[in-house]
Amino acid sequence: MFKFFQKKREQRLVAEAKARTFKQVLTDLENGNGNPLEAALVLHLTADDQDSLARFLITLGRSELWLLKKTDERFGDPAVTEGPDGNPFVAAFSSLERARSAAATWQLANRSSAISALELVFVLSPSVGFVLNADDPHLQWTFTPEQVSNLRSVFEQSYNYELGGIYSIWGEGAFRAAKLLAADDGGVHLRVYANTFSERPTNVDPASLTLDSSNSESVRAIGHMPLVRAGFLAMGPKLLATTPVTEDELEGYKMWKDAEGGYFGA
Asked: Where is the SseB protein N-terminal domain (predicted)?
């Protein structure tokens, strides 16, 4: 009998802790300093229906995640946790604070680094999944390799490919700027500028972007780059601005179309 009441008490304490976590996440959001991804996850865990799941996944695709990495490389040996199948899954976190808390709990010296959720989903090996907030059972969500594969399909189909959009992307060891010239069934067509940024830019002056690569030894501009959608999303695109697509920008695209060209990454 004692064990029965002890178990009931433990369950009640867990439920109360979960309720406090959920309340704090939603309160922070209402006060304007919350985390939309965490709020979307809380709403789904509360409602547990298809609409809330769709909202959570859409929010995930727009979010930054945090990894605990051993090296400075983009995916430099990230910390892993055990997945439901017993295999190692990448440990990802919804905020810098949660990543640092996990590093302290797990006694890791790994550095915290932000990465687009799109990058993570499209760069992961087909046999690897990831766990969001692995150290917090109340705000945790696991994506198996099969579910990650499904995410790739969902994101490819649902991503808002805005023509004329200038996006920040990751490529050749730095953040770059790329303009979306066209999108079709096979992929997207980009104009990749020579400008590089050490940190992801939050805005950009379109007039400052150039195709002149003469001052750079490591990167080059590309006037027209046909790329499969998965390749584009693996760069973690974030919309910075939108400008009209001009006829001269489409010159390379028209030549490619006349030649019935292919796509990089196909």
From this structure: 37-148
Sheet hosting strand 174-183, strand order edge to edge: 222-227, 188-197, 174-183, 165-171, 238-242
Residue with tokens 């979307």: 40
Task: Check whether residue 151 and residue 89 sit in a common domain.
Answer: yes
List b or e across 105-127, with b for residues whose CB sees 16 or more CB atoms inside 10 angstroms.
eeebebebbbbbbbbbbbbbeee
In which residue ranges of the chain is pLDDT below 50? 5, 13-14
d(CA 196, CA 58): 28
* Total number of domains constituting the chain: 3
Identify the residue whose tokens are 């060209």. Answer: 261
The whole-model pTM stands at 0.85
Which residues are within 8 A (CB) of 6 and not within 5 positions of it... i.e. 6 or more apart? none
Q: What DSSP designation does 207 have?
A: G
- Claim to verify: residue 14 and residue 96 sit in the same structural domain: no
Domain boundaries, position 38: 1-53
CA-wise closest residue to 93 among 85, 84, 110: 110
Mapped onto helix, strand or coil, the DSSP state of residue 218 is coil
Same domain, 29 and 105: no
pLDDT of residue 173: 87
